[in-house]
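Query form — protein Cyclic pyranopterin monophosphate synthase

QUESTION: What is the three-dimensional structure of this chain?
INPUT:
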Amino acid sequence: MSGGFSHLDEQGSARMVDVGAKATTQRTATAKGRVHMARDTVEAIRAGGVEKGDVISVARLAGIMGAKRTAELIPLCHPLPLSSADVDLHLAEDADAVEITATCRIAAQTGVEMEALTAVSVAALTIYDMCKAVDKGMRIGDIRLVHKSGGKSGTYEAA
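ANSWER: The structure tokens for Cyclic pyranopterin monophosphate synthase are given below.
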């Protein structure tokens, strides 16, 4: 291990970590993010007036699909059989934005933080894709892990 990163071998090359000796535990991770947009775009989503369809439903499905395919998108991630992937989207009360929350669960030897973060990212990109014809100035941001439990490192709660 080099510099505290477990994805490096003795020569400093990237590798997939061997989790074979780790105990199987129940693990959960929750991530959040936002897509900031113009007020008119928020109102079009609320009214169901986006030409490409129901933005919230499509982004929810895309986020779930993204979580399931994380290992194909992020190098060195373990392919994981998720027990659940929940993606919740709603229009923010305090800003012109769609808020995204994803929670992934598994009984495994490694965590699901990357799956939750990928779900949020893919849902956000889907919102951008569906609304870009009317609002190219949207900003995807605030993507972060807010909760993690299970495994050797225990529980994490964002401040």
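ADDITIONAL NOTE: The first strand starts at residue 25 and ends at 36.
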